[in-house]
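Case study.
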Amino acid sequence: MGDTTAGLLTILTLVVVLALVHVPLGDYIAHTFTSERDLRAERLIYRLCGVSPRSQQRWTTYAVSLIAFSGVGVVVLFALCVLQPHLPLARGASMDVSTSFNTAISFVTNTNWQSSAGEAGASPVVQTLGLTIQNFVSAAVGLAVVVAVIRGLTRSESGTVGNFWVDLVRGTIRILLPLAVIGAIVLLAGGVIQDVAAPHVIQTLDGGRQTVQSGLVASQEAIKQVGTNGGGYFNANSAHPFENPNPFTNVVQILLMLVIPFSLPRAYGRLVGDRRQGYAVLGFMGVLWAAGIAVITWAEHASATNALGAMEGKEVRFGVWGSTIFAGSTTSTSTGAVNSLHESYSPLGGGGALTNMALGEISPGGVGSGLYGALIVAILAVFIAGLMVGRTPELLGKTIGRKEITYAALYTVVTPALVLVGTGAALALRTARSGLLASGPHGLTEMLYAYTSAANNNGSAFAGLTADQPYLNTTLAVAMAVGRFVPIIFVLALAGSFAAQRKRPHTDGTMPTHTPLFTGLMVGVALLVTGLTFLPALALGPLAEALS
Amino acid sequence: MASSSLTWRRQTIAAVRLLLVFTVLLGVAYPAAVWAVGRVGFHDQATGSLVRHDGRVVGSSLLGQQFTGPTWFHGRASASSYAGDTSGGTNLPESDPQLWKAATAMRKAAGSIGNRLPPDALTTSASGLDPDISPAYAALQAPQVAAARHLPVATVRHLVAQHTTGRTLGYLGEPRVDVLELNVALRALSETPQH
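After joint prediction, the assembly is written out as follows.
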C-alpha cells in the first residue's frame, strides 16, 4: 500500500470513529450537566468540601470559585515543584523558582508548556500528585465554563449560570475519569509503561550502558491526551517510545485528544434543544481541522523530495503521515503534545502548526475552551452578518447588544495582543534572544511560536528555544495565565448577560445559525480575524523562510 | 465589601478541600488502579517490553541502542547518543547547514553504501531513542553485516525479513525493523566471537 493511501485511510479511520463516538458521548455530556441526580461519590465529595450542590451561582460567583480553585492549584503545584528535592522519590529532580512558577501556571492553565525537561525536572511525586491532577481539573474547568455559557444561552431572565463546583466535579468524575481509565488501559495494552520501579541501568547488547526509564506513564498519558493537556512524562513527549510505542497507540492518542472537543458540539445542540446548531459548529471545527492537516501534510511531502525525506525529527514508526496528522491535531486542539519535532518541519509545515494555534484553538480546540471559542466566533459572525443586512444580531434568541459584542471583542483581542507584544518585546531583548537556536526568519518563528503556544494554552514548542531562563519563564507564564483566565472572565460575563436577557422568539426575520452558509460565515470570520492579526508576523517568519 | 471577601474566603476553602479530595482520587487511586491492571493483565508492556538474551536483560524492544562496528545492524543517528535519561532531538530545520553537514558525514561513515542511504539513515529522530529503521536501510546493511559475521547473505536477509514489521492493520504507520531485536537474533544465530 502506498504512503498516500495509508495516510488517507488513517484520517478516514479517525473521522469514522469520531462520527460514531460523538453522538453517544455528546448526549452523555449533555445529560451529565443537566441531570438532577448526584452520584453517591459526588454527594460525599460535596459534603467533604462544604459545597451545597443545589445552590446556583451568579456569573461573578462562578468566576470567583473558578479563580479560587485555579489559584489554589497554582500555589500547591508551585510548592510541590520547589520542594520536590525534600520529598520522597526525588531522584535528583529539581526546578528553580522561575521554572517552578512557569510549570505551575502551565499545568493549571491547561497549557502544559514544559520549560523543564521531563526526565530531569519533575520527580514521580510531582508528576503524579501534581501534574496528573491538574491534567484532569484544568480540563474540567474548561468544560465548566462552556456549560455555563450554554446555560446563559438557554436560560431566560435568570440571574444564575450554574454551580461551578458541581460542574467541575461532574466533568471530572463522570466524563474525564472514565475516558482516562479506558484510554490508559488501551495504551497500556499497546505498550505504554506503567511501573513504579526505579529507573535501572542495563548493559546494552553492544556492551554500552543505558538507563531504562520507569514511571506511571500510561495513566498520565491518557489524561494528557483526553484533557487536551499535552505535558509529557518524558522530554520527548509522545515521540518517546515509552509514551507512544507504535502506530496503534499513535492513532489512539490522536483520537483521545479529539474525542471530547468534537463531541461537545453535539452536547451543545442537545442542550439548546436544536441539534442542527451543534452540527453547524461541528462543521466549522471539522473544516478547519482538516484544512490544517492538509496544509501541514502537503508542506512536509513537498519538502520530502530531497535526501533527508522530511525525516529529521520524526520517528520511523510514524513516518510523515503519522507525524503530520498528530501535529495538525495537537496544535488545533490546544493539546500541545508532540510526536515529532515541529521545529524541524519545513517552513510551511511549521507555519501550518503555528497558524492552527493562532486561530485561537477552535478547530476543534481544547476541552471546553474550543467550543466557547467557537461560540465567540459565532457571535462575531451573527454580528457582522447583522450589520450587513441591517438586522439586530442575535444568537439563539439572545440579542448581541453593545455589552455582548464588547465582551466578545475583548475576548478576541486578548491572545493576539499577548502573542504579538510578547514576541516583539522578547525579540528586542538580548537576554530573551540568547535563548534562540536559529537566526533569521526561523529564529523569529521560534519566538512567535513560543508566545502563540503559551497565550493560546497549547503548550507545544519549537523546542530549539531554550525557554528555561527567568525572563522567558516569567513572561510566558504571564501569557499563559492571562491568555487563559481573562478570556474566561469575559466569556462568563457574556454568559451572565445572556442569562439575564429574555429569550426572544424565533421569527421569519431571525438569521438561521444552523445552515452550511452560517458554517461558511464562521470559517470566514475566523480566518479573517486571524489573518488581520497574524499575517504580518507570519510573513516575517514562516512565509519569509519558505520564500528564501 | 465584606460580602465579597467572604465569598472569596468560602470559595477558597472549598477549593483547598476539593483539591485534597482530588489528590487522593486522581493522584493516588487512578494511577494505582491502572498500575494494578498492568500488573495483572499487561505485565510485559507495563514494565517496558524488556528484551532478554542469555537470561540477562539487554534492553527494551521500544528503545533504540547505540551499535558500533560492522558486526551489528546500526540504528538511526541519535541527538542524545541513545541515552535513556535525556530524550530529544536536534530541533534543526532543513534550512540549517549543520543538518546537511551531518548527513554528508553519515554518508562518509557508511562507506560503500553511503550514497544509497535512505532518509532515516541521514537524519536523527525526535526522541533520540527511535528503535526502528526502514526496511530499505536494513536491506542495505545486510551484506556488510553478513560479511563481518561470516554468515551467508541470504541467512541475514532472511533474519531481516523475519524482523520486519508491516504497517499495523495494513495501513497504520510505516513498515520498520526493530534494530535491537534484529541484533539479538543475529547474535543468537551467529557463532562469530563478539568484539
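Observations recorded in class. The first strand of chain A starts at residue 200 and ends at 203. Chain A has a mean pLDDT of 94. We will return to this complex in the next lecture.
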